[in-house]
Amino acid sequence: MDGFTDLLDYPMYVVTAAAGGERSGCLVGFASQCSLEPVRFVVWLSKANHTRPVAERAAFLGVHVLGRDQLGLAELFGGETGDRVDKFDGVDWSPGRDGVPVLADARAWFVGRIEDRADWGDHVGFLLSPVDGDAMTMPRGALLRLSDVLDVTPGHPS
User: Fold this and answer.
1) Does the pLDDT of residue 19 top 90, yes or no?
2) Contact at 8 Å (CB) between 88 and 25?
């Protein structure tokens, strides 16, 4: 399978969650639109990630895309863990639906209502129905991709 997946260059997303007075966010490479009518999107969160248990208690998730020039933000959400660091400290964000953090500097974002959750191995899938969002006009190829973050060491606790 490595030969197949090594050819892929997924877009990267920052997924945010809020529940019970706690907020969290992480860098995600496993996500995709999965339905046209109704529009649905799925994100898979690692079971090792601090964001997953917060998302399990949440009703909504935020999904953000970054530009290739936003590697610092990707390193923060991908290379740090919410177990040790408040990733939102010093980041421009505002509360979206149900308190979900919306990153002000994201090139595009949406907040989605969690319609379903599914255990798929070492990740949990969250099926989302978009309820709000915004996007900048950008040329194709300007979004942050997997190849841009290969040097980011995941910030999962050891």
Assistant:
1) yes
2) yes
At 114, which CATH number?
A: 2.30.110.10
As a whole number of angstroms, the distance between CA 83 and CA 94 comes to 21
The domain tally of the chain equals: 1
Answer whether residue 119 shows pLDDT above 60: yes
Structural domain of residue 141, as residue ranges? 2-148
Q: What is the pTM of this model?
A: 0.92
pLDDT in tens, 41-50: 999 999 999 9
155 within some domain: no
Amino acid sitting at position 105: D
Using alpha carbons, select from 34, 117, 21, 104 the residue that is nearest to residue 62. 104
Alpha-carbon distance 51 to 48, whole Å?
A: 9
Hey, how many other C-beta atoms are within 10 angstroms of the C-beta on 27?
25
